[in-house]
Amino acid sequence: MDPINRTIRRISGSNEFQRRYEKMKKEIAADPEIQQFLQTHAQHLAPNAADQGMIKLYEFMTRSRKCADCPSLGACKNTMKGYEPKLIIQNGYIDMQYAPCPRQIAFQEQRNTEKLIQSMYVPKDVLNATFDQVDVDTPTRMKALKTAEDIVGQLVADPEHYKGLYLYGKFGVGKSYLLGAIANELKKQNKASFILYFPEFLKEMKQSLGDQSFAGKVDAVKKASILMLDDIGAESLSSWARDEVLGTILQYRMAEGLPTFFSSNFDYNELEHHLTYSQRGEEEPIKAARIMERIKFLSIPVEMKGKNKRNA
Prior knowledge:
single chain; two-stranded antiparallel ribbon; about 300 residues; alpha/beta
């Protein structure tokens, strides 16, 4: 043991070691996030905590934080892929732990939701859509794309922003495709979103009553950080589906201020008329108005017009 100690003392006393140590101290002293941490927690730190924790501070400084230096989750350069360092204090001394980074959180949320909900039924071209590929051959398509880009910017810049889009128009004008492009742009910005083809989702909810999974699936959808309901209004709606499924989801999202996007063949007034009448022909305007109040609170209506791309 004594020879090892002598070796350590010899290395520690060498000019090269001192040069590296001083360089490391200067780099740490120039890191604003580290200095903010030290100032904020000064009263909780032992007198020699900064010197004792020099290696931890240097490791923190050289790792990627908030995905700044990682091009993707798969190419993460950190020791633990998908996890970023966090400085903590233990017994007055500096330590470090790893926590999921924004990309890992988004990926995990997406995967957890998809495990519960098997009825996305979203076409492959929609899942691969990008803003660059959105057709802007009509003024309304151009306006819809511009509004979508603005909304994405607001969602990225302001965590409190909750307004999504209500895209409406005839069949095949690109509403679902634009939702897919929005989802992919948000993904680039480490924001998780989930697209559901709403008519198939309601079918699955009805089937899930028999296997006791209904509550878990509705819970996952209503709590999704960013939700997209594709083709709302295309379903044959029962009072149960309107009130217990759609109403429950929208009530939660309105109360929590969670961003929600919609696409529909109906404008607001037409959708309210659709929601008023159940499969049995029952007329319930107050319940329909309650649903519409939530949709209007959560979204900005944007009409899309143009030729049917599916027939092109």
